[in-house]
Design a protein that fits this description.
With 248 residues, the protein is mostly helical. It has one domain. It has nine helices and two strands. A hairpin with a 4-residue loop joins strand 1 and strand 2. Helix 6 packs antiparallel against helix 7. The longest helix has 27 residues.
Length: 248
């Protein structure tokens, strides 16, 4: 059974993924963009990041947004694993199968980001000595002392929105353009949440871009290795059982 994504297109997507990874590494290690942006967001006179405690960025875009997106994910999780006889009439098995992928990718991305944060000693901007903290700054992909603290890389809050890009699977393979728009919208929401954290001094740009890249990598893995399965998901035994009862 042929894939609905050709090998040529997959090869181009993987090439772009590799090139984007190299671009993020160069940005973090060979430019001062991370520090330049953080400097612009830091109020030297007050000795703190301008929007660190601003209601919109701290409470709305950090607290409320995270709670709203978590609630949405829980709703999708319930729909994804509802027993077949309890599902709403508008939810087909194919869409329920895709919801399972969406919720699973959200967990995988969040878990991967959380694991990396615990492995990495990179400090948040507000914790480094350049901005009044106590920890040293060093590029995101450079060597570091193993005993150092920080655990701020990659961006965690951005992951609470980046998983929305996995909703693109709900339109595949029948509507690839709608799927692309959904993927871009999800990545944009995640980046926006990461940007708001940057304004507060919680992350550098490379932190957010790395989280975004990891979500793209997970999506591409799904598109590469399960594209046939997404086009023709396996039906549960209960469906076959019900269909036999109706035809008997």
């Amino acid at each position: 059974m042929e894939r609905w994504l050709t090998n040529t297109r997959l090869a181009w997507l993987w090439l772009w993924l590799v090139l984007s990874a190299l671009a993020i590494i160069v940005l973090a290690n060979n430019t001062t963009l991370d520090l330049t942006l953080a400097d612009a967001m830091f109020d030297v006179r007050r000795g703190q990041f301008t929007y660190r405690h601003a209601f919109f960025y701290d409470t709305v875009m950090h607290g409320y947004a995270k709670n709203l997106l978590s609630t949405f994910w829980l709703a999708l999780l319930v729909l994804a694993w509802l027993p077949w006889h309890l599902r709403p009439t508008w939810l087909s098995w194919e869409q329920q199968y895709r919801f399972r992928w969406v919720t699973a990718l959200a967990v995988m991305h969040s878990g991967l980001v959380s694991w990396l944060k615990h492995q990495m000693p990179h400090a948040c901007p507000w914790d480094i000595d350049r901005y009044g903290g106590t920890l040293p700054w060093f590029p995101a992909f450079s060597a570091h002392a193993p005993a150092m603290a920080g655990h701020c890389f990659p961006a965690g809050h951005a992951s609470s929105g980046l998983w929305l890009s996995a909703l693109c699977l709900c339109w595949l393979p029948q509507h690839p353009r709608k799927a692309l728009k959904a993927a871009i919208a999800g990545l944009a929401i995640g980046f926006l949440l990461g940007w708001c954290q940057q304004l507060r001094g919680a992350h550098f740009l490379s932190h957010t871009l790395t989280s975004l890249w990891l979500m793209c990598a997970l999506l591409l893995c799904v598109l590469s290795f399960t594209s046939t399965g997404l086009a023709h998901p396996p039906y549960p035994k209960t469906i076959f059982y019900d269909s036999k009862k109706r035809t008997a």
